[in-house]
Amino acid sequence: MRPHGTERSLELATAAAKVALDNRGQDVTVLDVCKQTALFDYFVIATGTSRRQLHAISEEIDDVLEKQLNDQRLGIEGYDESRWIVLDYGNVVIHLFDEETRSYYDLESLWADATPVPLAELGLHDPSQEGE
Predict the structure, then answer these.
(1) Do 42 and 117 meet the contact criterion of CB atoms below 8 Å apart?
(2) How far apart are CA 40 and CA 3, in angstroms?
(3) DSSP reduced 3-state for 77
(4) What average pLDDT does the chain have?
(5) Rg over CA atoms, the chain
(6) In this structure, are residues 92 and 83 in contact, taking their beta carbons and an 8 Å threshold?
(7) What is the pTM (predicted TM-score) of this model?
(8) Higher-confidence residue: 39 or 47?
(9) CA 127, CA 108: separation in Å to the nearest integer?
(10) Are 14 and 78 in contact (CB under 8 A)?
(11) Could you tell me the strand order of the sheet in which 75-77 lies?
(12) Cystine design at 25: which of 15, 20, 94, 113 (Cβ 3.0–4.6 Å)?
């Protein structure tokens, strides 16, 4: 059995969240799902405002995680439709949504027992959350 919440998983989740923020992804959220499932450690969820932006975020996440952090993506779903792109890195799954699809599926409520990881604890800052 693999260790849950490993430092490596958190490193990948943090890098993916940073890429989403750097590419103006909105409402970026990191969820620790270790206690809810044996399949994953973290979900990274972000909203994009256009198909082009979602593609850019997903491509740069792949670039950073594969080239800089030497990890291997196991799968990708939804890239062509670009309403909900899922990047599967094994212990970390990245969900990139358009606003309507994110609202409809509401993963944060579906995984309400997961532990949100404050971006500040990861050394990240989300300018879209200012004033809330």
Answers:
(1) yes
(2) 10
(3) strand
(4) 91
(5) 14
(6) no
(7) 0.92
(8) 47
(9) 20
(10) no
(11) 75-77, 84-88, 92-98, 42-48, 26-32, 115-116
(12) 20
